Amino acid sequence: MSEANLVLFKNIHIQGQNTLAVAQQQGAYKRMEKALGMSGEEIIQEVKSAGLRGRGGAGFPAGLKWSFIPKDDPRPKYLVCNADEGEPGTCKDRDLMRFDPHLLIEGMIIAGYAVNSKQGYIYIRGEFYREAEVLEAAVAEAYAANLLGKNILGKGVDFDLAVHRGAGAYVCGEESALLNSLEGEKGQPRLKPPFPANVGLYGCPTVINNVETLCAVPAILEKGGAWYSKLGVEKSSGTKLFSVSGHVNKPGNYEVELGIPLKSLINDYAGGVRGGWENLKGVIPGGSSTPVLIPEQCETILMSYEALAGAGSMLGAGSVIVMDKSTCIVKAIARLSKFYRHESCGQCTPCREGTGWLAQIMDRIETGQGREGDIDLLLSVCSNIQGKTICALGDAAAMPVVGAIRHFRDEFEYHVKHGRCMVD
């Protein structure tokens, strides 16, 4: 995509961009100054007109979420950044925090001002030691320059920001589990409703957005919601960071407009499939929880929320995992099942017990100990997990299994019948 349309990675390769001095040379905090001259409602309307959808996976409209914060409620309002990037294959937010932390801070100040919040938190994944240090240094610089704290730039606006390190639990990427963890409680999801907009952090109205979502806000304020809405495709506007990994020649994070053909993303940005496009076996398009696509689908599918949902998968967090024909699908899914069993918080019986059963049966099939009926048993276990848990971790564990059986049932059957993989 053209340099002029870059929203998130525009300055990420500039040496020293993580420092305030260099970031300001590139225009950092100018958008914030503009925003502080607007009303909160005007900012929310701009974000709504941009069509910005949450980049954490759910794709809920960000401006609409902000508008849910009650305006006349006397309770404190909180803004929380979800920086607990833990989905296998996902590594884009990490780059934003590491190389352009002031972009995130600026986005948070704007969002906080829009919803009348005076306190923000960045909840960062426990393993992200370096990124946490970079963020903490950037926050300190912003305080020293009166870009955070009391009476920001003499505009009469207060906003404090703290970096909170999590303990490394995948489930804390779920917003209500994150809030519990932030409060010092066990990181387990809450029943909803009530939703965080009314009862969030410390029982107060709270907005939760992920890193990529908040980093898109400054450009929207600079160039306008109408400009942003013209990027991408209808209902999936703007740019998106895709983390492309697996069997490609140039794995990495790429910023492109939403709606780009998957084939173009892989060939033109990630250097193509190892061994050529004909060597493609399947693609997990949005992170480990999203169902796999087969090559026939990958030929024409667009990377938008709607197109991927129509193909029986999801855009998710935009983590594209490419698998060539040397891949044993059963082994790949078995590894994911182990991950979800390990990360289940155990609060809901269908998830706690179901992820254990999935991991156990997948391991049995993968190691050549599969039994007749195991494949249908897997589908039965999945049906007893999906939609029956407080949060989406149970669904996340079940969907890749269901998707793999849908497209690669013959490989599962071969494993059960011959006790080994057909691609060995």
TrEMBL record:
Cytoplasm in keyword set: no
Catalytic class of the enzyme: translocase
Catalytic activity field: a quinone + NADH + 5 H(+)(in) = a quinol + NAD(+) + 4 H(+)(out)
Alphabetical list of SMART domains matching this protein: NADH_4Fe-4S (SM00928)
Keyword field contains 4Fe-4S: yes
Record GO terms (molecular function): 4 iron, 4 sulfur cluster binding; FMN binding; metal ion binding; NAD binding; NADH dehydrogenase (ubiquinone) activity; NADH dehydrogenase activity; quinone binding
Keywords: 4Fe-4S, Flavoprotein, FMN, Iron, Iron-sulfur, Metal-binding, NAD, Quinone, Translocase
One annotated GO biological process: cellular respiration
Gene3D superfamilies linked: 3.10.20.600, 6.10.250.1450, NADH-ubiquinone oxidoreductase 51kDa subunit (3.40.50.11540), NADH-ubiquinone oxidoreductase 51kDa subunit, iron-sulphur binding domain (1.20.1440.230)
Pfam families: Complex1_51K (PF01512), NADH_4Fe-4S (PF10589), SLBB_2 (PF22461)
Domain NADH-ubiquinone oxidoreductase 51kDa subunit iron-sulphur binding: 330-375
Known cofactor(s): FMN; [4Fe-4S] cluster
Enzyme Commission designation: 7.1.1.-
Family assignment from sequence similarity: Belongs to the complex I 51 kDa subunit family.
Function, in words: NDH-1 shuttles electrons from NADH, via FMN and iron-sulfur (Fe-S) centers, to quinones in the respiratory chain.
Name recorded for this polypeptide: NADH-quinone oxidoreductase subunit F
